[in-house]
Write a structure and sequence with these properties.
This protein has 183 residues and is of the alpha+beta class. The chain has helices at 2-20, 25-44, and strands at residues 52-53, 71-72, 76-77, 81-84, 90-92, 97-105, 109-115, 121-127, 129-130, 139-140, 145-148, 161-168, 171-173, 179-180. The protein is built from two helices and 14 strands, in the order ααββββββββββββββ.
Length: 183
Amino acid sequence: MKKLLILAALTFAAFFIVNNFSGDDELKDVANNTTLPFKMAMLAAKEPEAQIAMPVRTVKVKSVADTWHAPRPNERTHQGQDIFAPRGTAVYSATEGYVFRIGQNSLGGNNVWIAGAGGRFYYYAHLDKFAENLKQGDYVTNETIIGYVGTTGNAKDTPPHLHFGVYTSTGAINPLPLLTEQK
């Protein structure tokens, strides 16, 4: 109980500093990233969502072909769902959370990781570009645009799509059964 109270006090103090600091934006970003582990810990303590919003709103859940565990080169299997849409279509966060990482890699190309409730991580890959002003540590909801559908990474020879993955402490899980239409 004492550790929980200390964590809560530290989180409150960090939240107060970040949200009331009126100084230089760069210093505010440093403070925000310093508090990110506390924010993520508080979110991880919540139950994960039973349903999450479809990240590409122009696509209906029932039209997504189930590509979970489809064979991939080098004896890999597909650890997510491919959601096809025209290049440049907005990609929204499927859930509330914090931007954990914005980056690039050879498989996913331009990608964003969102830390969500229950310790889940949501992976958005092959983005054409990131949302303007999106930064590590930003709080997001299913109303937040995080990027735009594209063909970066190993998707350069495929139709534009979002690779959407969901990861738990035990590994990847199929996101398709969790997806619901945004209301």
